[in-house]
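call fold(seq) -> tokens
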Amino acid sequence: MQPQQPDDRRCLSIRISLILILLSHAIAPADPDDCPPGCNVCALKEKANTPVPGLTWGADLRLRSEHLDNGKLDEEEERSADVWRQRVRTRVWTKAQPMDNVTLACRLTAEPWYFSEPDSLDEQFTRDEALIDQLFVNWQNQGTRPLQITAGRQDIRLGDGWLVRRGTPRDSSRTNFFDALRTTLILDNHHSDLDLIYLRNHANSSWLARPFNDADLDLSEQDATGVIVYGRYRRVPNTELDAYFIYKHDDRVAVEGNDADIYTLGLRTAGPLSSGWSCRAELAPQFGHKNGTDLCALGFTGLLSYALNDACQSELRVGYEYRSGDHDPNGAFDILWGRYGSNVANLFGGAAALEGQVSHLSNFHRLRVGWTGDLTDNLRLACDYGPMFRDENPWADTTGFSDDGTVRGHLVTGSASYQISRHASTDVLGEVFFPGDYYEAPYDDTATYLRWQMMLVW
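ret:
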């Protein structure tokens, strides 16, 4: 039997994707808001959750096919070669409520990868392990001073997730968890609340419980300890006002890991301005030290949007993001647990590794203009364009970086998402990055990223 060629495997993955789309339509009729009476999935879910009072369970399946070309901006470099991979993430979870104010939760996740390209890999099927990515107890006090405590392995996202989003940055998007103790105080008659969080994340995925079929995957480049105080004020109608303090201590584990003590203060606001206009903005000064370098940095992200209220419910937006640089790369703004966030493109993972850790990109000004519209109740389109500029030039006289270039490049993104039903959705995302004069040969080749995804939710 002749071995499959890359083009044959690519065609096979496309065929499988189309078959799964058709199957998802059969599983649940198209209705983006709710399932119609008689939905088989809803009936089966209700039946499965009935036998044991106080015990529920669920599951989801995410299918992804990704193609990345010139991820390290060098088409001649083997590490920058075409990558075509399929990712299948499965999660199964259960929740038990032994008392009205106590909830126990556990979730098991697995995401094996299969590489159709490149053929030079020693193993094309990787990451075939399963691990616990949620294991926590939640207790709520509904007295005169409402209080909520969540202890254990849990997902945490604060604000828009700019700085606190993913506690396992080296794990791509298989897991996002934090091993943490989170206390939430409800204040001012439910108009304000205060989060007090202590976390301790280990790079070793076996720290809490050894994964099934352990593949010895590190979840980060360093062990991290953190303290977060995050307050929200909601007295102003339809307006979010947040303030926070974050302390992060890093202990290097991998060669590219950090030894650091970082202190970050922040203010965030979001809400409407006037008819059709809305905005959000976040400002975060930062200080401390990182790998022996004094850190005094600043980060800002903001977005101004205008709703056209037309037939497509179109929205126009303009945004700006700044992450300060320094003559020493260790002095640049640290994105903390915000790597792989929504503000910076997926294809910057490899490009960021040219200057530090994967997907830990700083030292830039980024402008952004974009449009979003709903062609139907189910179908949403979005596109964005943004030039990027460097703040400092710490890599002058280094191969691949110019001595006086200021333009990092131009980023173009586009996406289409289709909500099949409450139980199924699919989307396509494309990104192209054209390097500017900040780079020079060999890091001056156009990078592209294409992703198809389907999500099935029990």
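Residues 28 and 39 are 7 Å apart (CA to CA).
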